[in-house]
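Hi there,

I know you've been waiting on this one. I reran it after we fixed the sequence typo, so this is the corrected version. Both the input and the resulting structure follow.
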Amino acid sequence: MSAEAPRFAVFGHPIAHSLSPRIHEAFAAQLGIRLEYATIDAEPARFEAAVRQFFAEGGVGANVTLPHKHAAFAMADEHTEAARRTGVANTLTRLPDGRIKAHNTDGGGFVRDITERGGFDLRGHDALLLGAGGAAKAVAWALMDAGVQSLTIVNRTPERADEVADAIGEPARCHTRYWDGLEGECFDLIVNATSIGVTGGGFDLPMSIVQDHSTAYDLCYGASAAEFKGWAVAAGVRPDWFRDGLGMLVEQAADAFEAWHGQRPDTDPVYRELRQRY
């Protein structure tokens, strides 16, 4: 009788819509790895208990999505550098001694998608980041590491944007503006890391911030990216210079998969298959 397949899961609330099981199962099939991958819906009050129960019952690794990324970081015993800098985690691993290690693969996934798949060289460009939540923090650090000339962060609650910029600590390159204080600025790259596409609302930003060569990127994908894409194209971004976050989702999953299994999957066929549907 064969041993049970190693167990993995993604935690969120809600979580039924998650593509993570499909992505990790595709990676596993590609590399001939056996695994079980489930979705676990955990309300915030139950999140830590649910994760600890999962690991106590033999779980090996977990992905974490909204609204649990800060809690995932807080409950971990060890943290990768990417997780430590952002204070949030999207991946947890049970170590051999039972302790929990937190990872953050969002920033790396974003950079690989926009540079390797999207062909956008971030070096020397001026970037605008909308939002200051968990994913935005990871993207902010990743943009700085990738060599942007400047990074401007805006958020509806400006204090949260200030916190991200202060944590990065490079005021000459990374600074904040008020949401309604962008008139007269222009950017090569505009990244939406807000929840507007999911929760509703509009992008009441001056269209003058877009240049004729600007690229726009939404961390959401599919229908959730439609609102930002509509604004960006109306402001002058070429439709083929707009990217949504599906590629980032696949790339960050590949980082988690490699951390767990020691092998890196080929992300392109998985991305192409999902792109046909979303």
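Quick highlight: Residues 7-104+247-275 form a domain with the Rossmann fold fold (CATH 3.40.50.10860).

Best,
R. S.
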